[in-house]
Structure formats: C-alpha cells, structure tokens
Amino acid sequence: xxxxxxxFEKRQRELEKKKKKEEKAQRKQQTRGDSPVxxxxxxxxxxxxxxxxxxxxxxx
Length: 60
What we know:
Elements: H1 6-32
C-alpha cells in the first residue's frame, strides 16, 4: 500500500485557499467599482487621512 503524500495534499489545500482568496478579492473589487493600480490595493498607497505636520498635537 502506498504512503499518503501529506506535503502534496497540503500544497493543494494552500493553492485552493489562495485561489478562493483571490476570487473573493476580485468580487469585492467589482462590487466597489475600483480598478486595480498595478495589482496593488489603493489603500496601501499611503495614509490618506494622516494629519498634516502643521497640526498641533493633543499631547500637551
């Protein structure tokens, strides 16, 4: 009787998870109407709501 190849099974599960995650992200993107920017999430481009340096801090 042949031994089970656990590494192959694990890799197949990982590939399936990755595929599902990508499909979910694509569906989410289509519902939002965003277009991909070089395959990056627009939220990763930088902090859009970061306070400006001239704003006085509330730590005083």
